[in-house]
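Lab notebook, bench 4. Still working through the backlog of constructs that have no structural model yet. Next entry is a single chain of 310 residues. Request: give me the structure tokens for it.
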Amino acid sequence: MNLDQLRGFAEVARTGHFTRAAERLHLAQPSLSRQIAGLEQEFGVELFHRARGNVALTAAGERLLPFARRMLADADTARGEMAELAGLKRGRIRLGATPTLCTSLVAEVLAEFRGRYPGVDIEILERGSRSLITELMEGGLDLALIVTSVSSGAARAVLEREPILRERLVAVSAVDGPDPFAGAAPVNLEALAGVPQIVFPESYDLRAATDAAFRDAGVEPLVAVEGAEMDAALSFAERGVGAAVVPAMVAADRAKLRVTTLEGDGLTRTISIARRSDMAPTHAAAAMQAIIRQVADRLADAEGDLLARA
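Model written out:
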């Protein structure tokens, strides 16, 4: 058994397809198939059910997968530690973040990190908070930026969270169109619900937060467009399709958007850095964490200026 075999096994399990896994690993499919066959021969069990156009883990494969992921994560950590002995001239950092944070906080963090440590490779995973927590627990990430609390006992026992930013949500609409709120600010949820909304996919943490706020207020929003990703939602709002509820920091540099503050403290979220508490952070992860704190402080100041002008 070797790391290449385990990496091939984990990728086939992730994609459910030998061809796609081979492409992602930059291997010829026969080479990948030989790796898996060698692994199965060594263990004396089949790891995948193979049917035309469909590959699924066997019971043995399901048992092996978490071990394979941990072994690959440990190998990456060891490789990174050795590289960091050169003073962060080489290495890798695996950062997870939610889609809304990738368009604001993460973009600023990556630009600054690359400027300081150009030799360190950065791998980004863009998912919802709960998926990121799972990846952290399985060793697939070094750090994650999440916007929801850790709910399970297993996660609380393993993960360490550091709140870095309290994110206020605002309503945005086209600055060159009629004001849907007639100049009123802050706007309550009842008034917001009556304005056509551009809403995000149900997988978004932001969608879950706004849906919960409307439910608590006993109102149902008027939906104009559903399922838009962040960049699309902002573009739709700029063109007068409807209003969108977004983090204030996302709207900071959008001159075509009118920003309207919302009433009360219900539509706020706390952004936290999460990492495994039972694993010492690599030098690259510690450097990334420090930059995230610095950028979060700057964005908090910029958000305050934006809300003061709204």
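Notes after review: The chain has three domains: 3-64, 67-165+270-309, 166-268. Residues 283-309 form the longest helix (27 residues). Flag for follow-up if needed.
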